[in-house]
Amino acid sequence: MQEEELVDGKVDWRGRRAVRHKHGGMKVSLLVLGAFAFENMATMSLAVNFVSYFTGIMHYELPDAANMVTNYAGVSYMLSIVVAVLADTLIGRYKSVVFSGLFECLGLALLTIQAHYRSLKPAICNLYDKNAVCEKIKGSHEAFLFIGLYLLAIGSAGLKASLPPHGADQFDEKYPKEARQMSSFFNGLLLAICVGGSVSLTFNVWVQDSKGWDWGFGVSTIAIVCATILFSFGLPLYRIHVAQRTNSLIEIFQVYIAAIRNRNLPLPADSEELYEIEQDKEAAMDIEFLPHRDIFRFLDKAAIERKSNDVQSEKQEIPSPWKLCRVTQVENAKIILSMIPIFCCTIIMTLCLAQLQTFSVQQGFTMNTKIAKHFNIPPASLPIIPVGFLLILIPFYDQICVPLLRKLTGIPTGVTHLQRIGVGLVLSSISMAIAAIIEVKRKNVASDNNMLDAVPGVQPLPMSIFWLSFQYFVFGIADMFTYVGLLEFFYSEAPKGLKATSTCFLWCSMAIGYFLSSIMVQLVNRATKNVTASGGWLAGNNINRNHLNLFYLLLSVLSLVNFLVYLVVSKRYKYRPQSPAVKGVDSQ
Questions:
Q1: 370-372 and 375-376 as β-strands: parallel, antiparallel, unpaired?
Q2: 22 pairs with which residues across the strands?
Q3: pLDDT average, residue stretch 165-194
């Protein structure tokens, strides 16, 4: 009988060591991808159509509604960091997913109830009628809206924080075969987003616009229930990460504090004199060891041992971790510090994404949405164009392009993570430039046909909504390169104890981008208040009379400058030393 091969650092659902070929692997990760697809089916339509709900049903003004959406998304992505830390240190990633699913179900249920009962929302009113006095939701009803909205944000944050790292836990990077499968898994995450998103952007949006928002929220609730149940089915087959009481984030902070405390100590000429625990076979299995690198030498002071003749201090075997750190701990702190400039360069891309989820949808409401004699495409469904393209492109890229690039470059993922991110950043700049050009054309059509004050959705411009597909198409490709590249980059580069939290760096980057979007809309309106007749580039609800084209052009220029900065930053980045691969059958 062949001896079972155990997996280091992972257990099964009963707490026993996980067994390779029995627990984890590509097949069980499909359950994670399926759950992720259902989660995106539930939420993607909300991200692109919430503005319509807030303006048309709750009677918020367009800039306020756009800021509500970006604030909601920002809070959701930011909370993912908190949930990831809890998953790493207290409850574990599996329980985190289940609890988050319950929170998301509760939030959607509350939104469904409010959308169904007229007593919980403002009276029906035409927001575009100049003579109408539309009462905005307020008081306890507004509180009810925000409770449901942010319970949804908490649940969504938990699923985004825990599902990707739990799926990655099903693979062992030390085995070449599983390392390649992990790369395919990360590509599969984007494919799952596209599959769930394609249903969300067509069926869900149609339900929201045609059957009512109560039915729309109800469909999303059912999708989250399906996601939670599907994920739970895999419990006996998962490799489960054991929550650690110590947190690697604290260890990183200890390095910075110790380096400051030891700032007056001279650096030794030989790095071998820096503090490190003894490495033996038993420790090597459970404790990470990294070689010293000559970067950020100031942090090396955290690993300088103070010499003392005090007898009592000599008897103290365990030094304070806030005064003395291991070389590996210092190197992990260096890696995190090196990743910060890369992290910052990706924020601007989410700022651009926020506009496609808000203002571009409102552009679509003013245009001709007819694609057949008896069928109109909802403006919120426009992202289905890049999503549909990505459904074809992602398998093509993963199964054909990556193997070819792997042969040419010798890199397991085809190209480096930083190269992949850079392609997406430059494409986002191009997307915003295209958006600016299309908006100029749209406004010219409105002006030429004396339709600057036309009611959106009732008096469509003689211009097809498919003109907006160009900007969505280019940005969709940018998504595939940058966001998947970032997930791989953060997961592979982060310290061993920060693998889960590291994937949330992407969500944190997106959160900051969404918050900056809200701030930028307000700043642009204030700066241009006395320059334009509309009272600001983005002021008011009449998108035909504001200057959205100039805002898009500004974002394009900022994105281009950001890409140039990224080129400098990425060129200086040094990848972390990788552990040697395990040879054997899995390398075949």
A1: antiparallel
A2: none
A3: 84
